[in-house]
């Protein structure tokens, strides 16, 4: 057993962490012994298919390779494997082209095997975290040996923050507290508090959304969480595998957020091991500064979260609208204009949804079916005139909605994919010139870059949040949409082809910034190369706005030696750090 605090010890033994350190064989052995078999070595997911792995001749394993080939683009398969990521550029070292990938369009394509399999970005060692002790030992090991740490749950991160070349990976994906996976607590009182919250669910960091939604429904409850829709053809879905405990830390938007708030608005308590080695409860009454930081500061920054508790709602009836039509060279333009024109009114009525140039899926927990039908009249008439399909219906629960519209549409992962996004200020929707500007920008995305605008109506538009209760940028609360778009490339793309796609994403992000000065971006779904374009004095203004200095102070308090660091995270070491050697500069 470790002492309750390792912070003093850490301070004494911490060695310089600026370069890539390698523990000795003996240090690895001792560490492994202390973890009773939970330290594992990892090769890249597709290694069994390759004749040469990490420079050495290897024996192809036809059975294992065939399982990998047939499940290469299956989210359920990837999300429970430590070396697998949803977006496969994060298994590769993009700068050096070291990789071990298959062709996702045809996983048996022999072209993939003509290059040697290399470890790339994938951690050689990971700890299958089974409790706070494993995390405490890992922080200590990192401090002692200088090896970098990374934390991974299900690997949906768009920005490579759940891995790092040469790091020891803390894999929390399977973690459930000993006594329960999910726990419904009526009248939940945060530890140290007094006021009870009518309905709350506590869950381990390894529990996926799919299980949460089902569990909530079985208890006649609604969990407010996210998903991605099939709206754009290059949008790859795999949301049900995302871990709610992770999603919450960066913001967490849902199409129910307009009425019920963001994930950060609904969390009541975290249990977390901070890098000083202490297992803490963070809520409004204990470690309240840390709690505030975890409500928007982002993952992999303040510690390893092992449990979270958040508010849930009673089961609710939803009005659901699903519309789509076939695109012609021009018919998407008036549709986009209609979405822009109607969005402010829809916002005041409680609609959330995902929309694109030729389709939408919107939900509303406040209106009746009649009101919902009337509210969407203009847009349904337009879609009908395009010979498109219009369904507006009342469904008895989120679970029924999710099963009908989302689960059935789950598409593949295992591809190279990136995105950009921006919070679109409400004031753009209230003036004629604002509406015209926004519509033009979306049309430009399509015409100049062939990228579909992906509109998330998931800001806390009607939600009455408490001032400064969360650390997300306040821009969330002055915005009506999160506007984004996805792009990708082939598994065998060259560095310059990859760079081109990142540049396109950044160019589009800049178009969006130009029309929304002073707004912000969602740190989980923003341009990989987000800039502090407004020229404010502080870094990462777009993710946290005026909250950044307080977040940085809290980072320094709980992680004084920067044992955790990730791309564009609070207090990060910067792109020059050895941790980011695989990102394209
Ligand atoms: C298809 C798809 C749909 C999405 N839809 C939505 C949506 O509807 N709404 C929304 O808000 N977001 C959405 N996202 C973004 C998503 O919420 C984030 O990518 C999320 O953080 C990924 O969670 P994960 O479990 O896969 O985490 P990972 O990718 O494993 O990790 C994400 C980050 O959290 C860190 N981390 C992981 N575990 C822990 C832990 N226990 N403690 C501390 N840090 C940790 C990692 O180091 C990394 O920095 C979507 C993403 C995808 C790919
Ligand atoms: C992998 O693919 C095989 C063959 O298609 C299938 O039977 C199996 O269930 C898949 N495994 C997982 C974990 O998805
Ligand atoms: C859920 O509600 C139904 C209908 O009111 C009721 O029969 C059932 O017992 C409830 N289930 C739980 C777990 O509360
Ligand atoms: C918001 O709360 C945090 C954490 O308690 C604190 O550090 C910060 O100064 C507060 N910000 C404002 C503007 O009050
Ligand atoms: C439909 O559009 C017209 C013209 O812009 C507008 O006046 C009207 O309020 C809209 N109807 C609804 C139901 O939103
Ligand atoms: C819709 O279908 C009708 C009947 O087939 C056809 O006349 C009309 O041109 C179509 N309209 C559009 C916009 O495709
Ligand atoms: C927010 O507060 C206002 C004023 O108190 C109230 O009318 C409204 O219903 C609240 N909104 C929600 C979504 O609870
Ligand atoms: C990638 O592979 C495809 C065939 O699968 C081929 O058409 C394409 O030219 C290759 N691209 C590069 C950059 O080699």
TrEMBL record:
Superkingdom of the source species: Eukaryota
InterPro entries xrefs: BBE (IPR012951), FAD-bd_PCMH (IPR016166), FAD-bd_PCMH-like_sf (IPR036318), FAD-bd_PCMH_sub2 (IPR016169), FAD-linked_Oxidoreductases_BP (IPR050432)
Keyword Signal: yes
Keywords carried by this UniProt record: Oxidoreductase, Signal
Annotated ranges, domain FAD-binding PCMH-type: 118-315
GO MF terms, alphabetically ordered: FAD binding; oxidoreductase activity
SUPFAM superfamilies, alphabetized: FAD-binding/transporter-associated domain-like (SSF56176)
Stretch forming the signal peptide: 1-21
Family, similarity comment: Belongs to the oxygen-dependent FAD-linked oxidoreductase family.
Name of the protein in its database record: FAD-binding domain-containing protein
């Amino acid at each position: 057993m470790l002492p309750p605090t390792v912070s003093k010890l850490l301070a004494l033994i911490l060695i310089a962490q600026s370069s890539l350190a390698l523990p000795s064989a003996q240090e690895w052995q001792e560490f492994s012994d202390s973890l009773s078999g939970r330290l594992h070595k990892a090769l890249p997911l597709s290694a069994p298919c390759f004749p040469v792995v990490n420079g050495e001749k290897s024996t192809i394993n036809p059975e294992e390779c065939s399982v990998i080939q047939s499940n290469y683009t299956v989210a359920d398969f990837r999300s429970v494997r430590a070396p697998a990521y949803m977006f496969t550029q994060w298994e590769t070292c993009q700068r050096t082209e070291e990789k071990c990938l298959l062709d996702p369009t045809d996983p048996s394509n022999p072209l993939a095997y003509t290059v040697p399999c290399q470890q790339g970005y994938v951690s050689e060692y990971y700890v299958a975290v089974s409790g706070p002790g494993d995390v405490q030992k890992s922080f200590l090991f990192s401090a002692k040996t200088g090896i970098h740490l990374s934390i991974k749950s299900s690997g949906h991160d768009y920005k490579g923050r759940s891995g790092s070349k040469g790091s020891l990976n803390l894999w929390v994906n399977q973690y459930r507290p000993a006594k329960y996976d999910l726990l419904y607590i009526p009248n939940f009182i945060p530890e140290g508090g007094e006021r009870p919250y009518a309905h709350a669910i506590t869950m381990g960091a390894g529990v996926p959304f799919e299980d949460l939604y089902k569990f909530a429904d079985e208890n006649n409850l609604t969990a407010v969480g996210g998903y991605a829709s099939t709206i754009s053809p290059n949008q790859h879905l795999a949301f049900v595998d995302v871990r709610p405990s992770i999603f919450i830390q960066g913001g967490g938007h849902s199409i129910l957020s307009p009425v019920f708030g963001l994930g950060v608005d609904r969390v009541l308590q975290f249990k977390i091991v901070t890098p000083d080695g202490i297992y803490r409860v963070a809520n409004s009454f204990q470690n309240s500064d840390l709690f505030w930081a975890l409500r928007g500061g982002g993952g992999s920054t303040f510690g390893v979260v092992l449990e979270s508790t958040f508010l849930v709602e009673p089961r609710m009836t939803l009005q659901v609208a699903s519309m789509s039509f076939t695109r012609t060279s021009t018919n998407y333009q008036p549709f986009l204009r209609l979405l822009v024109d109607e969005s402010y009114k829809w916002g005041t009525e409680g609609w959330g949804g995902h929309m694109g140039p030729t389709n939408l899926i919107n939900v509303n927990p406040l209106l009746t079916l009649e009101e919902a039908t009337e509210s969407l009249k203009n847009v349904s008439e337009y879609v009908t005139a395009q010979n498109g399909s219009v369904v507006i219906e009342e469904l008895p629960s989120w679970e029924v909605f999710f099963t009908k519209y989302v689960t059935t549409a789950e598409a593949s992962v295992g591809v190279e994919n990136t995105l950009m996004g921006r919070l679109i200020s409400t004031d753009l929707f209230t003036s004629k010139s604002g509406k015209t500007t926004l519509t033009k920008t979306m049309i430009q995305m399509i015409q100049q870059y062939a990228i579909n605008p992906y509109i998330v109506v998931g800001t806390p538009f009607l939600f009455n949040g408490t001032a400064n209760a969360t650390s997300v940028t306040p821009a969330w609360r002055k915005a009506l949409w999160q506007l984004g778009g996805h792009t990708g490339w082939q598994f065998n793309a060259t560095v310059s082809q990859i760079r081109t796609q990142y540049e396109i994403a950044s160019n589009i992000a800049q178009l969006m910034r130009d029309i929304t000065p002073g707004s912000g971006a969602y740190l989980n779904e923003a341009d990989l190369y987000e800039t502090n374009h407004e020229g404010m004095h502080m870094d990462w203004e777009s993710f946290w706005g005026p909250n950044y200095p307080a977040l940085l102070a809290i980072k320094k308090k709980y992680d004084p030696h920067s044992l955790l660091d990730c791309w564009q995270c609070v207090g990060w070491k910067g792109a020059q750090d050895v941790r980011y050697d695989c990102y394209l500069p």
